[in-house]
């Protein structure tokens, strides 16, 4: 009897009758019920989050910004959440939200307190404090619901942070524009100051140019008047001598006349000298920049001072004429000489006062000159300083950013949210259900193989009784399971791909790999049943549990405890899940060949163990005739 014949006999046995056929059909549908139904229920749970009830409490009273605008960040966040249509939001009071979460009416609650806006705007007053978003959860409602709620709060926090950061950056950049504008105005003012100080400096230079010759001329006038004073110091004495000589006129008119003419000539020369002095002083004062009015006042003062001299000169001249014509005028000459002697001290006093005034004028002009020079030097330093200020402000203007409105807004947005995540997905499962599909298809295949041997006999009793070759008996017992397992896989894969709409990137490769996986799992469970009988079924169940925790179907397998690592490497389901992932998601197919070879090795090893079981069962023992445990 060949292995195919034994397999055919076993299939005919389990399909003889209406109820057995229904049982076989049910066995073929077990993987479908497990994998397809579960994947259908969990295909895309995130798309249905809008049906999850959540409480939203908005107590924010708003706040006024520094520019006088009223802002209610809580209402903005609430509107964003409600319009986002991610959850079934309910605007309720804080008491209703807390009671609703506790009683399971709401999965979680989100509360925005009354000072939410004030906290967000507090940095503008340099009294920063963070805004608080309160999340109320209850794991008794749903643990993953709480996890998702935390993700929602994190997203809200990021969104608010981006908005607040962008607004703050916008104001910061706008402040730069204001600073630049004020700096431009300051630079314009500094330019005007520099121009004004330059003109003031030019004026001070001209003032120095006028004050220096004025001081020099004043000194010369003072020196001339001093010389005049010194030259007229003996005039009173000589006038007295004239008076004494007049008394001697009677001794000889001719002598007196000559003496009188001599004094008349000297007096006239003195008057001429005073006239020349008046002209020189006036010309020098004009050359020094004095106004004509000032010159005339000085000339008038000198004229008033010399009036007695002019009067005396007239009298001298008159006396000299009288002495020539009148020898008997000695009395008159004596009187005139006495008058001249009396007037001469007044003239010398006037000359002394004029000299003192000229000295004071000269000293004042010297101070004016020194002050003008100091003013010129100070103005020069001021000009240099204002020029540096002007140049520094103009240079600083170009270093102050002045973005236009679009650029400022874009910059503020970038500062508020400086990082974009650009995901490069080499492969993508697409949905949550598709992501779990490799794991649950693998589990369904094991479960399908497990239930097959609730109906199938692992070894043909007729073959064993007839002493058939152990390999032939083992393969004959394995083949019915392979055929039924293939039917399970085809039905399961068809429904998952066409009804549940989880489309693998390599559909035919995925189907072929599932068929190999099914054949391998059937071989492993066949070997357990062939070797250990009823205990083999229990071992198959234990292996299912061990592979559930070690295959890495949900989290990466590296996250399991290290002591469980040998289970991942030593059991076949991890390789089945890995191969299905690459085939379904479109990843590299390099590891698929390795996974397939390892499954083939498991298949061959399982068939070897089945052969050993068939070999051992050719000998009937009391335990086989009357087993202690029957399942």
UniProtKB/TrEMBL annotation:
One of its GO terms (cellular component) is membrane. Keywords: Membrane, Transmembrane, Transmembrane helix. InterPro entries: ABC2_TM (IPR013525), Phage_infect_YhgE_C (IPR017501), Phage_infect_YhgE_N (IPR017500), T7SS_ABC-Transporter (IPR051328). Pfam families: ABC2_membrane_3. It is a multi-pass membrane protein. Residues 403-611 form the ABC-2 type transporter transmembrane domain. GO terms for molecular function: ABC-type transporter activity. Its main location: membrane. The chain crosses the membrane at residues 432-456, 477-499, 511-531, 538-557, 596-615. It is found in: Membrane. Gene3D superfamilies: abc type-2 transporter like domain, Methyl-accepting chemotaxis protein. This is Putative membrane protein.
